[in-house]
Amino acid sequence: MTMSEPRTRIAEDEHGRRAGFDEIEVGRSLGTLEWTVTEEMIDQQCEMDMDYHYWYSVASPWGGRVAPPQLSYRPPRWLISRTYNVRGLFYKWEMENVRAIRPGVKLVISGTIADKYVKNDREFVVYQAEAHDPQGDLVFRTRRTHVLDVVERSAPRAGRGLDSGVKPEKI
Amino acid sequence: MALLTADTPVGHELPQIARQFRLAHFRKGAEKTIHTDYEAARREGLPAPVAVGPQVAALIFQQLRLCFERGWIEGGRCDLTFRRPVFVTDFCAAQGRVTRREDTADGVRLHCEVWVENQKGDKVIVGNASGLVS
Known about the structure:
The complex is a heterodimer of chains A (171) and B (134).
Chain A: E1 12-13, E2 16-17, E3 29-36, H1 39-49, H2 54-57, H3 74-83, E4 89-97, E5 106-119, E6 122-132, E7 138-147
Antiparallel strand pairs in A: 1-2, 3-5, 4-7, 5-6, 6-7
Chain B: E1 17-20, H1 38-43, H2 53-68, H3 70-73, E2 76-82, E3 91-104, E4 107-118, E5 123-133
Antiparallel strand pairs in B: 1-3, 2-5, 3-4, 4-5
C-alpha cells in the first residue's frame, strides 16, 4: 500500500503570505500604472510567440511598428500582484483591442477587482483593466479570471511555494 | 492581406496554427516557476510544469492576425477559457471557424469559434473571437 501525500494549498512564498479568498475585496481599485512599450518589448513578444509580421517588425499602416495586441497581457497582471499575492492559474481571458499599441506612447492602465466566486471547490478572482493613451482614448480593455489555487479550497493552507505570482515588472 | 473578408461565408475554417512546446520556451533566467520546475509545480498541486497560458493562447492570436490583420489589431475581441493545463512538452494546434456575420457601425464584424487542441485531441482552450473585415 502506498501512502498518498495530504493535499495542501501553498500558504506563502518569497513575497509573503498568499492572499486569501476572504481578503479579496470586490470593487477594490488596483490602482494605475504608466507603461510605455519599447521596440525591445515588441521583439521579445514576437520571439516568445514565434509570430513575426511586417507590421510588428518594420512598419505598419499606423506609421511605424505596432505591438502584437497580446503584449497587453502583463501590465494588468502586475496591477493585481501589487495588491494581492496571487499565484494560481489563468482561467479566462477577455480582451478587446480598441487601438493599435505603439512603441513610445505612454499608456495609463487602471484596474479593479470585478468579482470573485467559488466553483468546483475552487476559488476564483475576476479583475478588469483599461489602458488609455495621452489623448485619453481607450487603447485596450481586458477582463481576466484566475483560480487562486489548483488544489481544492477544502484543503488546508500549508508550506512554502517556490513560485510566486509577484514577478519583476518586465516582459 | 487578411484571409477573411466581408464575403467569407459562415462555416469557413480558420487556418490551423500549431506549435510543439518545449520547457525551454518558458524559461526566464534561473527562476524556478510552475512553468519550468517540477518541484515548484508539484508544490502547487500540478503533476508537471505547465505552459504559460498566454503563450498557448498566442496560437489563436496568430490565427486571428492572419485572418483579420488590421481588423484584429484595431477592433479585435476575444473571450477565451483555459479548460485544462497544457504541459510544457505538449503539442498544440489552434483551430476555428466563422460562426456569424454582423453589420456594425464600424463595418462588418465576423465572429468565430476558436480553440486549441493538444496532441490527444483535448480542447485545452476554447472561446469566441471576432474582428472587423472589409
